[in-house]
Amino acid sequence: MSDNSNDTGGLTAVIQRGWLTAGALAVLTFIEYIVATSVDRPTLWLLPFIITKGGLILEVFMHSSDLKTLDGGNA
Amino acid sequence: MRQLLRAVIFGILGYLVGAVLTWLVRGGSLGDEVCVVFGYVVGLVGWLFGIGMGDTWVREWFGLPARESEVTGWKRYLGFSTNHKVIGIQYLATFIVVLLLGGVAAMIIRLELAQAGEGILNADRYNQIMSMHGILMVAVAVAAILGSFGNYLVPIMIGADDMAFPRLNAVTFWLIPPVAIGLLAAPALGSFDAGWTAYPPLSVVNNGGQILFVLAVTTFGLSSILGGLNVITTIVTMRAPGMTWGRLPIFVWAAFAASMISLLTTQFFAASLVLIAMDRVAGTVFFDGAAGGDPLLYQHLFWFYSHPAVYVMVLPGFGVVLETITHMSRKPLFAYKAVVVSLLTIAGLSVIVWAHHMFTSGMAEYLHGPFMFATEMISVPTGVIFLSAVATLWRGRLWMKTPLFFAMIWIFQFLMGGVTGIFLADVVTDVSLHDSYFVVAHFHYTIMGGMIFAFLTGIFFWFPKITGRMINDRLGIIFAVWLTIGFQLTFLPQFWLGTNGMNRRIADYPEQLEGANLFSSISAYFLGGSFLLLVYILLSAARRGPRAGDNPWNASTLEWQVSSPPPEHNFSGQPTVLGHPYGYGTAGSRHAEFAGVTTGGPTPPEPTGAGEGGDNE
Amino acid sequence: MAMTTTPEAVHSRAEATYRPAANRLGLWLFLASETFLFSAFISSRFVVSGTDQPEHLNQGLALLLTLLLLWSSISAFRAEAAIAHDNRRLFQREMLTTIVLGLLFLVGVGLEFNEALADFPANTIYGSSFFMLIGLHAFHVLTGILALGVVWNLGRLGHYGSDDHWPVEGVVKYWHFVDLMWVAIYPTLYLFGGS
Fold first, then answer.
1. Predicted TM-score of the model (pTM)
2. Beta-carbon separation of C173 and A70 below 8 A
3. Are strands B575-577 and B592-594 parallel, antiparallel or unpaired?
4. C38 touches chain A (CB under 8 A)
5. Mind telling me how many Å the CA of B76 is from chain C's nearest CA?
6. Which of C3, C8, C32 is opposite residue B595, by nearest beta carbon?
7. Are the beta carbons of A22 and C192 separated by less than 8 Å?
8. Mean pLDDT of chain A
9. Looking at CA atoms only, how far is residue C132 from chain B in angstroms?
């Protein structure tokens, strides 16, 4: 039920968005690791990272906006 | 039949393969719990493959066309049927049998408790029977209404032709027999005796039967999660045109709310049991205080499911009773919107009250207040539902047939359960009453009163629809009165026993409590006897009851607008919903019409006795 | 509304109209339910051992595992985008990449377990949580790999196209979900304990 952009140009754009997200996730994970190993009690410091990473995965990778319409909207 | 036979063979083979392979890898003995675990898991897979997943899903996974079975007649009920009505009846029959089995265990318990001291059972045996009674009845309470009426009626009530995932639905039902086999096979490994709650540390160190309990109940949890998922998806995506959320019959709303709870929280029960299994077989130490674990962790995880589970039991019961009351008092449901909001509020609140089961467990003191408050909060939406039932009856034209009889008895029973619950929600009184017979009496009023009585209401109300035949109303009312009197005589003395110091789950008690116990035991047999009458009523009505016609209760919701029993795909023309389901007494009110049916939709009629089933008061 | 609808016609129309919405919702509900399972185990870890963690944690291996999962996410994402745009070749290749990365992840977990057994066996409290959580996650990775394999094979046999690829969407969503759970499990076991 994909309704948007069926041309190959669309595919490149979509995949680019995927790579950008993955890049952001990698950077976030790296910073997360640095923070965790340099702070004494890092739990609260890490929560924003977890939430942001989770949000990115839900929104970009899992198309959570599906839920609004339960129809269409992948890739 | 062929499928069932294949499933049994594959199940046994699977068990042997799993157990023997584990034994070969690991040594030890074949009866070791690790072997049992792997045997059970592989056996379960074999069972599911044999019963029909192999013919459908697994073939499709490899790009082959599915083989749908073409069985008709009574053999459909013994096979992998994807028809929601067949599955509903499978659930109904299965859980009536389980209810009777649990009842037999209850009879044994009462026989033992008739006298102080050790009677027919020793203490170990008593604990095993008591645990078996508990888990069987909890299974009945969780799945009987949702599994049978939920499956049978929800699709018809919303104008759909089946559930959203018919095959998943079949799998959901066929996960139940392994549960029963697992529980009933437990004595082979030395039974389980930790109650249905299976608290560690006992459940980590007791006989091997406990591992079968853990496996079976986890399977049951899986079934209830998948069932909940299916019901919710069906209600959200498969409503007929015009069936807006505000026009859903109240039973559908109740099934929706209960399914939400069972979909989400059941995972916590699964998790707690998996941890028990890990502690038993994999050497982890979650519940071993000496190694740094915490037995209270189990209670938190367990009650995070098992308190909401109470609402998985009674919310569908609310739905059944309100449905029956509104149709049979010929009035629109009082405060429909408030009831819907209450059902959802209960579902929401149910996950923040669990620790009221743990006031005496030694958990952190600062948790007492909030959990007491949250628990008492829940009586507000419950009270709204209660008032709706009473106000719907108020000045209605009551049609005193068996279903309404049961529904009205339900109101009394649930009132008793609710009022006595206040003492248990309150920390101060609960500290004294905890684990006493007061608790036993209380939850029998709520669960048996709130759920089993609603289940019986539903059976008597929808029996004509499901079988196409009427139940003997006089016998039905005799049964209702007999059961109710037996129930009061059995459980009222237990409140007294509890406040006078009788502990639950113990085979023995002080001698001065003997009189009340003997009275309760004799009454329990009187109560149990009434179920023989139920079996007779149901069987005789199914065989020779008078024809019911399509709509013996002159009711307005969609299931009554099709033949009894409904046709294979429920509707011959696409139903379109036009208005509120309970338009009784409102001129020109119509719930639905059907495409291609010239008679148009049903107008909610006044009770004129037109239905073959009966006359009105 | 046609006046001559047969039951079969009503039935098949219902199938066609409701299927995609029902499948999506069903999967989302399943994932919501799974989230509760994971949160039960994650919260158990905090209840029994707070954020304590042992000295000998192989942080390098954990980072590598995280990276593997992330990489497999993007390949799964590309596979889904490819089939949605009818690019079958890319779809097949990326599915296979995802499966291989998943298998590598499992190998990594094996190494991790091997090391952990020596440092903090299951009969220590951190060990209990560690094996339980990583084991649960690895089990989901394994089922994900099996599902990916099924879909990959069906794709090879010529199933799916731009307007008919629900199984791809479903399995990829499940794969991302497993990744999502790792986002919570990784700090729970490796990072919250601090330096």
1. 0.92
2. no
3. antiparallel
4. no
5. 20
6. C3
7. no
8. 82
9. 8
pLDDT at C20: 79
pLDDT for B117: 87
**Inter-chain CB proximity C33 and B264 less than 8 Å:** yes
Query: What is the rounded distance in angstroms from the CA atom of residue B372 to the CA atom of residue C30?
Result: 32
The answer to whether residue C191 neighbours chain A at the CB level (below 8 Å) is yes
**Domain limits at C146?**
74-195
Instruction: Spell out which chain C residues touch chain B, with contact meaning CB-CB distance below 8 angstroms.
Output: 1-8, 10-11, 13-14, 18, 21-22, 25-26, 29-30, 32-34, 36-37, 40-41, 44, 47-49, 121-125, 127-129, 131-132, 150, 153-154, 157, 159
How many domains are there within chain C? 1
Q: What is the dihedral of CA B219, B225, B229, B230, to 10 degrees?
A: 40
Q: How close A48 gets to chain C, by Cα (Å)?
A: 12
Question: In the prediction, which pLDDT does B31 show?
Answer: 83
Q: Are B527 and B470 in contact (CB under 8 A)?
A: no
Q: What is the 3-class SS of chain A, one letter each residue?
A: CCCCCCCHHHHHHHHHHHHHHHHHHHHHHHHHHHHHHHCCCCHHHHHHHHHHHHHHHHHHHCCCCHHHHCCCCCC
Extract the residue ranges of chain B whose pLDDT is less than 70. Answer: 596-617
C194, A42: Cβ pair inside 8 Å?
yes
Q: Give C17's contacts in chain A (Cβ within 8 Å).
A: none
Report the C-alpha gap between B418 and B434 in whole angstroms: 16
Residues above pLDDT 70, as percent of chain A = 80
Looking at residue B611, its pLDDT comes to 39
* SS3 labels along chain C: CCCCCCHHHHHHHHHHHHHHHHHHHHHHHHHHHHHHHHHHHHHHHHHHHCCCCCCCCCHHHHHHHHHHHHHHHHHHHHHHHHHHCCCHHHHHHHHHHHHHHHHHHHHHHHHHHHHHHHHCCCCCHHHHHHHHHHHHHHHHHHHHHHHHHHHHHHHHCCCCECCECHHHHHHHHHHHHHHHHHHHHHHHHHHCCCC
What pLDDT is stored for residue B597 in this prediction?
56
Of all residues in chain A, the one with the smallest CA distance to C166 is A1
Closest approach of A62 to chain C, Cα-based (Å): 5
Residue ranges of B 136-155 with Cβ closer than 8 A to chain C: none
DSSP state at residue B164: S
ipTM: 0.92
Q: Which of B489, B433, B485, B522 is nearest to B514 (CA)?
A: B522
The reported pLDDT for the residue numbered C18 is: 53
Residues comprising chain C, all counted: 195
Cβ C195–A38 below 8 Å, yes or no? yes
Mean pLDDT check: name the lowest of B27-31, B282-286, C73-77, C81-85.
Answer: B27-31
Q: What pLDDT does C108 receive?
A: 96
- Is C26 part of a structural domain of the chain? no
Residue B64: other Cβ atoms inside 10 A: 10
Domain boundaries, chain A: 8-69
CB-CB under 8 Å, A39 with C70: no
Q: pLDDT tens for residues B90-140?
A: 999 999 999 999 999 999 999 999 999 888 888 999 999 999 999 999 999
* Structure tokens, B169: 């639905």
- C22 in a structural domain: no
Architecture of domain B81-544: Up-down Bundle (1.20)
CB-closest option in C20, C59, C180 to A71: C20
Q: Which of B164, B233, B572 sits opposite C7 (nearest CB)?
A: B572
In CATH, what number is assigned to the domain containing residue C132? 1.20.120.80
Contact B450, B317 (CB under 8 A): yes
Q: Considering only alpha carbons, which residue of chain C is nearest residue B224?
A: C33
Three-class DSSP category at B581:
coil
- How confident is the model at residue C21, as a pLDDT? 84
B-C C-beta contacts closer than 8 Å: 139
